[in-house]
Amino acid sequence: MPSSGQKIARLRLGVLCCRAVVGAMVVLVFLPIRISEANWLTDAFKGSSKPSKAAAHVASLKRTGSAKHSASPKSHHVKLAALGAAHLSLSTLKAAPSKCDPKKFRVLLDVGHTAESEGATSSRNVPEFAFNLRLARQIDEKLKAEGFAETRLLVTEGKARPSLVKRVAVANDWSADLFLSIHHDSVPDKLLEDWEFEGKKSHHSDRFSGYSVFVSHDNPDFKTSFSFAEMVAREMKARGLQYARQYTLPIMGHYQHPLLDKEAGVYSYDDLVVLRKTRMPAVLLEAGSIINRDEELRMESPERRDLVGNAVVAAAKDFCGPQEPFLGPL
After folding, report:
1. How many CA atoms lie less than 13 Å away from 268 in the CB half-sphere?
2. What are the residue ranges of CATH 3.40.630.40 in the chain?
3. Which of 24, 95, 110, 319 has the most CB within a 10 Å radius?
C-alpha cells in the first residue's frame, strides 16, 4: 500500500502532465497548421505514449511554420473554436481577409436591351433602353468612384435574341467576376390601360410598381448569384423602396415567377439567357416600373437614379467586404 508521501508525489506528477498538455494546446492555437500536419494533434489527445515527439514537432513548427505557410496558398489555420476559442481574448483574433479586392473585381454592368430593340415603352412613350442606359451609366460612375476600377459598361447592338448571345459571350470572354443587368419594369399587354399623353394614344398600368431582382437556378454559381441579389434587394428596401409583388400572381401568365426572398423581393427567372449562360454570378435588376405613371416620373429623376446607384454600390461593398471571423458556438 503506497505511503502518503508516494500519493502526493503521484498527484504532483499528474498535475504537471495536465499543465504540459494545456501548454501544448495554447501553443497550437497560435501556430498555422496545414491539414496534412494536423493528424498528430489527434493522436496526442488519444493517449500517445510519446509526448517527446509531439514537443519536438511543435518546436519544428515554430522554426519552419511561417515559411511553409507563406509558400503554400492552400495552407489553413485550425479553427479556434475547436480548441476552446470561446475562452480566448478577442484581441488575439486577426481581422479576416476580404472576399475580393475591389480594385481588381470585374463587374460587368449590362445595359438591358439595345437601340434597335428597345424593350418596354413607358407610360409617356419613352423606350426602356433610354432608362436603362442612364441608370447603368450612373451606377458605373459610382462603382468606379468607390474603388471598383475594373467595372465595365456593356452596351450591346442588334436585335433582341442575338444581343443576348453577345452579352453572354462578352461576359465569359472577359472573365467577369459579377454580371449585373439593368432593366426597368412593365406588365403584360393584357394588363395595360389606354390613356392619352401629349395628344398621343398611350398605355399605362398604375396597379403595379416597385423594383424586383432576378436570378437563375441554372447559373453555375446560383448560390453566389442569390447572395448578391439579396444584398441588392435589401439595400433597395433599406432606402424605403418596395418590391414588385405581382410576379407571384396568376394574372402574370408566363411572366409569373417563384418568389425566393419574400422580405426583400428576389425572384427566380431560370430561363433567362443572360442569367443561366454566364459562367459567373449573374443578377438582373428591374429598378422600377416605367409603365406606372407616378413611378415613371420618379424613375426619370436624378435623385431616384442616385438612390438606386447607392444601393448597388452598398451591395457590392458588402459582397467584397471582410468575412466575419469564425468563432464557433459560444
Report:
1. 11
2. 107-319
3. 110
Q: Which three cell numbers stand for residue 29?
A: 492555437
Nearest to 271 by CA among 214, 220, 216: 216
Q: What is the pLDDT of residues 96-140, one digit of tens each?
A: 445 799 999 999 999 999 999 999 999 999 999 999 999 999 999
What class does CATH assign to 107-319? alpha beta
Asked if 313 and 143 touch (Cβ cutoff 8 Å), the reply is: yes
**C-alpha to C-alpha distance for 294 and 292, rounded to whole angstroms:** 6
CA dist list (Å): 299 to 88, 101, 114, 115, 303: 52, 32, 19, 19, 9
Cell reading at 126:
419613352
Q: 117 or 61, which is more confident?
A: 117
Contacts of 101 (CB under 8 A, 6+ apart): 320
Q: Are 120 and 192 in contact (CB under 8 A)?
A: no
